[in-house]
Amino acid sequence: xxTFYQEPFSHWCVxxxxxxxxxxxxxxxxxxxxxxxxxxxxxxxxxxxxxIVDGGKVVTYQDVPDFLERQFPNPxxxxxxxxxxxxxxxxxxxxxxxxxxxxxxxxxFPKTFKDDLERWVFVxxxxxxxxxxxxxxxxxxxxxxxxxxxxxxxxEMLTQQRFLLSQKPSLADFATFGALSxxxxxxxxxxxxxxxLQAWNRLIDQI
Length: 207
What we know:
The protein has 207 residues and is α+β, with helices and mostly antiparallel strands. The two termini are 20 Å apart. It has two domains: 2-71, Glutaredoxin (3-Layer(aba) Sandwich), CATH 3.40.30; 79-205, Glutathione S-transferase Yfyf (Class Pi), Chain A, domain 2 (Up-down Bundle). It contains nine helices and four strands.
């Protein structure tokens, strides 16, 4: 059985977990603290999540999709010849969309931590990167408007089919679901003005 190391709110981890579940792979989950990576480093020799340990083999976050595709090819995460386009959308989801969503919800995230030290480390690191939480909160209307521009792109992609690239889910769907997952994790939701995106989100959530 595989061991899956994750931070539950990580968009990379959400994507990887969806692939595991879609392919019906058996695995055990090890949660990693935002502030304490010692067990992860001991098990994998590095400090990024997600990470999969398969016997003596360690699979790090960027290699997880293709490792799972090779080991468990059915159902595929590259349906209908969409591999190249799927990879492009995966990249957009991780390196563009996720940050746009994250800055909108980041001020809601401290309340999701049960451990005081973990919460403190989170706030310290986020403020080093982004500035004071109070400033981020004051900019939320602008952040929301920017986010909705990108959500509209996804809404239009779902006009002709249930999933982003075809009638079957793909890596692009799982990566995009991961990029949007900070909304629900922090107690927010997709705006009602995007009904097709909401329906798509429910479909992926049920996998």
